[in-house]
Amino acid sequence: MRILIVEDDINLNRQLAEALKEAGYVVDTAFDGEEGHFLGDTEPYDAIILDIGLPEMDGITVLEKWRGAGRAVPVLLLTARDRWSDKVAGIDAGADDYVAKPFHVEEVLARIRALIRRAAGHASSEIVCGPVRLDTKSSKATVDGKTLKLTSHEYRLLAYLMHHKGEVVSRTELVEHMYDQDFDRDSNTIEVFVGRLRKKMGVDLIETVRGLGYRIQAPTNAN
Ligand code: CA
Q: Which residues pair with 80 in a beta bridge?
């Protein structure tokens, strides 16, 4: 899952980025409204954290532009605590949720998890596919109750497929959601990660859909 943070407070931006990376996300950062707007307009994020008070272009304008252009990405606004009118304006502009400053990073993480889950149509923090369970809260996965020891890339791959279970996901899409904008992307590596993941899982739930990509699906009962 790939997140964009648009926040001009350098320390806060870095703090959020570190916490999100630790939780298994790929993170891009922007420090003003114009840069943030550009990235959100051109890169496929799974969620965006957007500050309202930004240089160059304020957060509400950035959000209005994205929504006006049809970008449906979940957006979590960062608002000043005493500015209730900002919250109203933000929600009217198309924000999905907000957190008032100062906040605990844990709260932002929980809200981001919920936004991504809901955008993919999952109500619970645990996503289940046959014997595989993905706990989005602890960033852990199990097969038949046994914890999988996954690298961060393998976890991201599995998490993306699980959020989109039953759907065919192309290699390009996986690359776009597993790496940040600066990464030297090579879609061939996806095949390698899928291979490793299948081996670690020990169950064949990740199907290769020839020429299209991959799909994780619970086995259908024969009876
Ligand atoms: Ca600010």
A: 101
- 24-68 pLDDT, tens digit per residue, is 999 999 999 999 999 999 999 999 999 999 999 999 999 999 999
pLDDT confidence band for 185 (50 / 70 / 90): confident
Per cent of the chain over pLDDT 90 is 81
Report the separation in Å between the CA atom of 160 and the middle of ligand 1, taken as the mean of its atom positions. Answer: 31
How many Å apart are CA 223 and CA 154, to the nearest integer? 33
Residue 53 CA, ligand 1 centroid: distance in Å: 4
| Residue for token pair 């996806």 | 190
Written as six digits, the tokens of 161 are 């497929």
Q: Are residues 69 and 92 in contact, defined by beta-carbon separation less than 8 angstroms?
A: no
Residue 206's φ and ψ, nearest 5 degrees, are -90, 110
Kindly give the distance from the C-alpha atom of residue 72 to the centroid of ligand 1, in angstroms, as a whole number: 23
Distance of CA 75 from the midpoint of ligand 1 (Å): 16
- Buried b / exposed e over 173-190, threshold 16 CB at 10 Å, is bbbbbbbbeeeeeeeebb
